[in-house]
Amino acid sequence: MPVSSDVVIIGAGPTGLACGIEIGRVGLKALIIDKGCVVNSLYHYPTNMVFFTTPELLEIGGLPMTSLNEKPGRTEALKYYRRVAEHYKLDIHQYELVLAIEGADDNFTVVTDKGRYGCRKVIVATGYYDVPNLLNVPGEDLDKVIHYYKEAHPYYNHDVLVVGAKNSAAIAALELHWTGARVTLVHRGARLSDKIKYWIKPNIENRIKNGEIRAYFNTTVREILPKEVVLSTPEGEVRLKNDFVFAMTGYRPDLEFLSENGIVLDAKTQRPRTNPETLESDRPGVYLAGVIVAGMHTNEIFIENGRFHGAAIAKSIAARVCPPPCPPAEG
Question: Do the Cβ atoms of 247 and 135 come closer than 8 Å?
Answer without folding.
Answer: yes
